[in-house]
Amino acid sequence: MDRRVIAAIVLMMAIAMLPSVIFKRPPRPIAVDSLAVATPAETLATTPPTLSGVAPRVPSTEEAPPVAEARTVQVTTPLARYLVSTRGARLVEVTLGGYPSLRPADQRVAAQILPEDDDLLGLQLVSGRDTLSLRDWDFTPSVDALAIAEDTPLVLTASRQGVEVELSYRFAAEGYLISVTGQIRGLGPNGGTLLVGLGRGLRNTEVDSTEHQRELAVVTKARSGTSKEGFGGLDKGVSTDLPGPFEWVAIKSKYFVLAAFALDSTVPVPEGRITGVRVRPADERKKTVEANVVAGLPITGAGDFSFSLYAGPMEYHRLRAIGHDFYDVNPYGWPGFRTVIRPVAVAARWLLVYSHETLGIAYGLVLVLFGILVRVLLWPLNQKAMRSQMAMQAIQPLIQDTQKRYKEEPQKLQQETFKLYKEHKVNPLGGCWPMLLPMPVLLALFFVFQNTIELRGAPFVWLTDLSRPDPFYVIPVLMGVSMFAVSKLGQMGMPPNPQMKMMLYVMPVMMTVLFAGFASGLNLYYTVQNIASLPQQWMIAQERKRLVPPTPPAPVGQKGKSKK
Question: Does the structure show a pLDDT above 70 at 391?
C-alpha cells in the first residue's frame, strides 16, 4: 500500500477521534436584553405577581386561593403516552412505546424521556416589568383521560386575580408533535411575553450515562442556520441568553429531542417568533449536567399565542418531514466537514433501514451484505489503482536513473520525470485516490452508528447492540487480523521496504486499539470489507509476480558497499 494512502487513513482517523477539540465552539456572548427576565422563584414567593392592567395587591391569607390536589391527565396515542399535570398544565411524562430504555435499572421498559419533576411547558407571563408564574396554578381539564383516535384537544382552564388562561393541547395520532394554542384575558392591550419552560434536559435511557451527559445540548435555528450549545460547556451558575429570533429551539440527547416551534407565517418570508432563549445551568453541586431552558414567545394584544412541541425520537425521516431544517438537530459530521459526509451518511442510513424493513433481515446481516456490495462496486477502480501501482513499480529503475542524471537540475528532472510518466502511460496519483473512496463511507457509518436511533439496541449474534462496542473485543481483533492479511498480500512481489514492513505490523495494531471503542457495527462492516477485498489482493499479487521481476540479491561480499 502506498505511503500516501496510509498517511491519509491515519489523518482521517485522527479527525474522527478529535472532533470535540477541533470544532469546540467559543462561548457565546450573553445578550441580556434578548429575553424578558423572569422574577426569581425566591422573589415570587414573597412578592405578589402582577401584570399590566391588573391592580397590584397583596392577598390576605383568607383571600389566597385554595390549593387543590394535583392530578394528571393521561393522553395515549399509538406511539406514546403523555401525562399532563393539572398543576401548572405542565407535561410531566413522555413515554415512547416503540423504544425501550436501555438503562440497566429500567429493565428495558418503555423509554420515559423526561426527568422527574421537570418544567416542560411550565409557563410564565411577562408584561412590562411584571411577571406572573403559572407553574403553581390549578387548571381544570376538559377530560380526565384522552385516547387519541381523532383530532380531539385537551383543554385546560384556570383563573386568578382577574387573569384567565385557556390552553389547548392537540396530540398527533401518527407522530410526536403537540400543538399548543392559548388565550389570556386580563393581560392588557399591549400584550406581553410568554416564557415557555423546556425543562432541564432529558432523562438518561442509555447504558452509557457518561455518553448521555456528553450529548446533552441546546440547539437553536435562526435564519442564518443552526447553532449548538453543549450542556457541558456552560458556565457554572451563569445564565446564558441566546438572542433570537429563532424558528425552533431544542434540547437533545443522543437519540431523543424536545423542541418548540414558532413561526410567523404572516410575513412574505416566514421567520421565527421565538424571541430568545435563556439557559441557566443547574446547581454546580449536582453531579449530573443539567440546564433549565426557557424560550420567549410574544403574546398579542388580544392575548393569543401558539406554538408546537416535538417530544420524541430523532428519527431522521420525521425530523426532515417537519421542515425548517429540523433534521439538523441530529448532525452527521461536524461543521466544515458535514457537507461532504452528510449525503453519504444519509444514503447509508437509508439503505440500512430500508434493507432491514423491506427484506426483514437483521441489521448485522445488512452490514455484511453492504460491506461486500461496496467492495464489488469498487472492484474496477481498485483494479485500476493496483495496476497503476504496478506500473509505477516497473518504471522505478528508470525514475531512479533520471534522478541521478539530473539531480543538479530540478526543473529538468521534473520535465524528464513527467516525460517518463507520459511515455509509459503511468498516472502517479492513479494508485491512491481509488483506494481512498471507501473512507468517506467508513466515516459516514461512524456517524450513522453514533446518531441513528433505528440502530439503537439492534442485536446480532453475540452482540447485544450494534451501536455499542463489542464487549468481548472479538470483532475489533478480527478487523485487525483482516487488515494485516490485506496489507501482507498487498506487499507480495514488491521490493523490500523497511518502512512498509514496519507499517505492516504497526497499522493493524493501531487500528485495532482505535476501533475497539467504536460501535461494533462499524467494526463488523470494516472487517467484512477487508475480507471481501482479499481475493482481489491475491489476484493482483499473482499478476505482480509475473509482470514485475523481483529485485536480484546483491552479490556475496558486496552488501553495504554500494557507496564508497
Answer: yes
Which residue has cell 479527525? Answer: 15
DSSP H helices in 203-337: 209-215, 316-322
Biggest alpha carbon distance in the chain?
Answer: 113
pLDDT score for 257? 97
Confidence (pLDDT) at 16: 46
Q: DSSP secondary-structure letter at 138?
A: B
Our measurement of the distance from residue 245's CA atom to the centroid of its chain's CA atoms, rounded to an integer in Å, reads 24
Tens of pLDDT along 357-378?
Answer: 999 999 999 999 999 999 998 8
CA pair distance 291, 216, nearest whole angstrom: 9
Cα(313)–Cα(112) distance, integer angstroms: 11
Per residue in 509-520, is it b (16+ CB within 10 Å) or e — as a string? eebbebbbebbb
Amino acid 328 reads D
Strands 130-133 and 120-127: antiparallel
Block residue for cell numbers 449536582: 286
Q: What stretch(es) of the chain map to CATH 2.70.98.90?
A: 72-333
Residue 411, all three cell numbers: 526543473
Checking phi first, is residue 409 left (phi over 0); if not, alpha (psi -120 to 50) or beta?
A: beta
**Domain 72-333 class?**
mainly beta
